[in-house]
Amino acid sequence: MKTIAVLTDFSARAEHAAKYALHLAKKVKANILLYNTFLVPSDTPLAAQVAWPMVDYNEVKSDAEKTLKALVKKLEGELKEDHFPGTFLPAISYQCDEGSIANNITGLEENGDISLLVLATHGSDEISAFMFGNNCRQVIGAANTPVLIVPEKTPLSNIEKIAFATDITYTDVEYVKSLSKLAEKFGAEITITNVNPDNPLDSEHNAAVRLFMDDIGHDVDYQKITFKSVPGSNVKKGLEWLIENIKFDMLVMVHRKSTMFELLFRPSVTKKIAGRVDIPLLVYPYPAVSIPLI
């Protein structure tokens, strides 16, 4: 059984991300794992320089587990209230470990059932941390599993349109194939978007797009896939135009060291996304031995 791991710090934003994960889990028939990491003073960089009081590791872990149990109970209660007989009911479990979230990702992923990592964004009052905050970036950098970043105002509604931003790289066809499995559960349309400074497309780029879409048509068994050329004198302006002008319920990208992905985390682009505080961002890992199916 597939499992969606929700990385939680027990904040209201993280709880909303857990509810969104449950919303997905019911559709894709996956269970939920609530995952928390905790630090003791010896884990901090200044620990050796400060006279910290003795902290009982077991006590800290026990407190985290109690909070996780309470959250599981709350979510299970809400889940059962909305449950219809005959539909899938996700099981909710929990786990906590010592250390930072990013440093524990590899160990967490050793559970081969985990198909998606979910975490919340920082609050909109912390714009410098929104989307490109340390936790999000470190988790994306460490993960070999798709990561879904959920803003606190994302509605728990049906996903109708998904934007997949690509630089027309052939390996992205496999990611679209994976994404189509999620889209199919919601009956959602996937719009392949590419930023190109020449609009209309020049002949060379147009040929590359046709080849890419032909590969998708041949390799991806899903009909609701369209292409949209995004105007912009450069990738940065193109991403801003996409965010401001195209209505979609989820933005999807591949984490490779490309201009497009790095620009997404620049403050100017991030502020545009902050203006659309309901857009979840799904990030696929690259390279990957195999493309995980959500």
Give an overview of the whole structure:
- Pfam families: Usp.
- Belongs to the universal stress protein A family.
- Residues 1-151 form the UspA domain.
- This is Universal stress protein.
- This protein has helices spanning 12-28, 57-81, 101-109, 134-142, 172-186, 203-219, 235-245, 259-264, 267-275, and strands at residues 3-7, 31-38, 92-98, 114-120, 147-150, 161-165, 189-196, 225-231, 250-255, 281-285.
- By secondary structure, it is of the alpha/beta class.
- The protein has two domains: 3-150, Rossmann fold, CATH 3.40.50; 161-279, HUPs (Rossmann fold), CATH 3.40.50.620.
- Strands 3-2-1-4-5-10-9-6-7-8 form a ten-stranded mixed β-sheet, with helices on both faces.
- α1 links the parallel β1 (3-7) and β2.
- The longest helix is centred in the N-terminal third of the chain and has 25 residues, at 57-81.
